[in-house]
Amino acid sequence: MGIKVSEVTKKFVRKTILKNVSFELEPNRIYGLLGRNGAGKSTLLNIMTDRIFPNDGVVTLNGVAIHEHDAQLGKIYLMSEVNLYQKRQRVAALFKASKLLYGGFNESYAKQLCEAFELNPKLRFGQLSTGYRTIFKLIMALCLPVDYVFLDEPILGLDANHRELFYKELLDSYSRHPRTFVISTHIIEEVANMLEHVFVLENGKILIDDDVDRMLSQAYVITGPGATVDAYTQGLNIIGTESLGNLKGNYIFGNLNDDREIPDTIQISRMDLQKLFIHLTSEGSTIK
Amino acid sequence: MQFDFTGQEPIYLQVANQIEEGIFTGAFEEETQVPSTTEMSREFHINPATVLKGMNILVDEGLIEKRRGLGMFVKNGAYQLILTKRQASFYKDYVKRIIVEAKNIKLTEAELVQLIKRGFQTNGD
Given pLDDT bands bounded at 50, 70 and 90, which one contains residue A284? Predict the structure, then answer.
């Protein structure tokens, strides 16, 4: 069950965007797809919805390849920056058209969301601002009867109030009607606690494929006098370091050696997902 | 309710602690319903599975119980359970840390006892 991405490789002219990427999505979970600019996130999501094709590898849904398979593709929706909608069409008409395409659309929920976000369904798509185009696409994503919803930068142009409203509606809708979401965003801090599992894409490869809880349980910051911190963290997986005069902070990803005595002068604290991501994917990071 | 999202403590533990605190202060009275997983998830942008993990800690501790079709309720005697638990961990949670800091700043045992007495006399002012 679920979506399986197997050994997908994608090249554009000379550049290899995705290198032998494999992972699985289970039903009814909320995933995060994180990566720096240019890591290959959008390319990956486009391949997973058959908008572009891999040079190698295959994507299956419940064991059946999705490529050119309408019934399979009807179970997946990708919301992205690309505007696939005709500018002259009205919002209400676009909702209706999707209903035909996907074999269903929760109209009462869409109406409720339009009211909550103050989107006038009589407007033409071309009349909407960047933020309202995003809102329109989010409403589409939440109201279609699909099992897999991919959100590529879902909060583009949204103000703080609308982002807050979107997170609430996403979780509310997910609780009422569980399905799989993949959220790809640079605003990690805001979505961190909604994610159960995270994929970190780095230079076209999957660097991390793990539950958020487990990732964070092995992420530590060790601070104190430089020499003491270095001595204590020697041999551990140091993914980043910061210093301020003689005060030093080493960022560790991996288990601490529990047998080691902890010197009085050092402090061990935790880091959040965003901080962990930054150190894992910054230049010169050592984890491979 | 207030959550610290900087990651010092796993979110599911924070969920458990916050509900426990709510029961202890009487915000959630015994025999009444605690907010549903969906409500908490929606309100604080936390994955429902994480909220449930926190709630299950409290179920295991016997503080709340699931009533089929109705939701989670605070059990009778939950307040007393929390009180007993906190008294049992008071030494580890507070006293030990006070002693460590007192030693760091070179306070004697007598001086520390004096300070604690003062705290009681002035009601913590």
Answer: low
pTM of the model: 0.87
- A147 and A272 assigned to the same domain: no
**ipTM > 0.90 (yes/no):** no
Per-residue pLDDT tens digits for A247-270 = 999 999 998 877 778 888 888 999
Does A158 share its domain with A245?
no
Domain coordinates in residue numbering, chain B: 11-76, 89-121
Establish if B45 touches chain A: CB-CB under 8 angstroms: yes
As a whole number of angstroms, the distance between CA B87 and CA B97 comes to 16
Amino acid at A96: K
A171, A219, A275 member nearest B45 (Cβ): A171
A31 shares its domain with A60 = yes
Looking at the structure, tell me whether residues A180 and A57 fall in a common domain. yes
Range of the domain at A272: 218-281
Q: Within an 8 Å CB–CB cutoff, is residue B91 touching chain A?
A: no
Domains in chain A: how many in total? 2
- B30 Cβ partners below 8 Å, 6+ apart? B23, B74, B75, B76, B77, B78, B79
Sorted by sequence, the CB contacts under 8 Å of residue A117 that are 6+ apart come out as A135, A139, A162, A165
Q: DSSP strand E in chain B: where?
A: 64-67, 71-74
| Shortest CA gap A257–chain B (Å) | 19
Which residue, among B1, B39, B41, B99, would best test binding to A if mutated, counting the most A CBs under 10 Å from its CB?
A: B41
Do residues A188 and A236 both lie within one domain?
A: no
Provide the percentage of residues in chain A whose pLDDT is more than 90: 82
Dmax (CA) for chain A in angstroms is: 69
CATH 3.10.20.30 corresponds to the domain B11-76: no
Q: Does the residue A174 lie in any domain?
A: yes
B12 touches chain A (CB under 8 A): yes
Which residues lie across from A248 on neighbouring strands?
Answer: A224, A243
pLDDT at A204 over 50: yes
Nearest to A181 by CA among A63, A25, A34, A44: A25
